[in-house]
Amino acid sequence: MPTRCYASVGNNSYLVVLIIVRERKTIHSQLISTSIEKSYLEEEKEEEEEEEQSNKMAPKILVVLTSQNKIPKTGAQTGWYLPEFAHPHEVLHTKADLTIASPHGGEAPLDPNSVKAFEKDEISQKFLKEQKNLWTNTAKLADLVSKAGEFDAIFYVGGHGPMFDLVDEPNSLALIQSFAAAKKPVAAVCHGPVALLNATAPSGVPLISGASVTGFSNEEETQVGLLEAMPFPLETELNRVSGGGYVKADQAWGEKVVVAKTAGTGAPLITGQNPASASGVGKAILQALGVH
Predict the structure, then answer these.
(1) What is the residue extent of each domain of the chain?
(2) pTM of the model
(3) GO terms for molecular function, please (predicted)?
(4) Tell me, what DSSP letter sits at residue 65?
């Protein structure tokens, strides 16, 4: 105890007591500060390790957008369709690592008609305001062909644009065939399934041969007034290549999500008919990846 120091002379003993007490207080304060700092650093390290582990475990999904910004026959603006990216993104982004790509790379054109049509859709408008960087700085498909093994699934967003630039894009086809050969999920919504028409299994048979598949229907295309502006009716071609496997909702614009297997490889094949099917496609992708 400090009182034991009063054996010395007068004021000097008092000074000694003060010094000892102050030193003890300083040491005690330093010990508390060090303990708090150590505790904080340990918690921070644990959080970083948990985040790193989470990132390692999260599946990686390659999302493909169109680079086509005009409909050749009409000159009208087109591109990818807002809710067909916004809604799957809402489902996927907290549970998967998304990489966005397009044939040309850079900014992928957003169809302005989809912005207007879904101006009252909260998910689409929130996505539009907060996630612009996702489609303004896309990777180039050609740069990802050699990196297909780094991803766990591939997903094609719809819009009328894919009807013109993704039906026979060589890098896109190489990616689809690589994913299918590795038995990884191949998914597409609305006009996105056009990218599957010319994809083949290693044996040479069409990937969608004998499979149930869906996509934007001829009735829906007629209702938006663009059937004649398309290079071909998507429903008709999907039905032909699949060997009569095209299916659709009972009513136009109804939700329809189909999960099947690719021919020759048995990879999960996920297709959605229209904008109403976009969220369902996202959920089906997670299910195929075993993510809950």
Answers:
(1) 21-54, 56-289
(2) 0.82
(3) glyoxalase III activity; transferase activity
(4) -
d(CA 140, CA 146): 12
Whether the CB-CB separation of 275 and 81 falls below 8 Å is answered with: yes
CATH architecture of 56-289: 3-Layer(aba) Sandwich (3.40)
Which pairing describes strands 153-156 and 97-102: parallel, antiparallel, or unpaired?
Answer: unpaired
Task: Give the closest residue to 216 by CA, choosing from 202, 199, 236.
Answer: 236
Q: What tokens appear for 50 in the block?
A: 């948990």
Q: What is the pLDDT along the chain (292 residues), one digit of tens a residue?
A: 544 444 444 455 444 444 444 445 554 555 555 555 556 667 666 666 555 555 558 999 999 999 999 999 999 999 999 999 999 999 999 999 999 999 999 999 999 999 999 999 999 999 999 999 999 999 999 999 999 999 999 999 999 999 999 999 999 999 999 999 999 999 999 999 999 999 999 999 999 999 999 999 999 999 999 999 999 999 999 999 999 999 999 999 999 999 999 999 999 999 999 999 999 999 999 999 999 8
Where b means 16+ CB within 10 Å and e means fewer, 115-128 reads eebbeebebbeebb
- For residues 211 and 230, is the Cβ–Cβ distance under 8 A? no
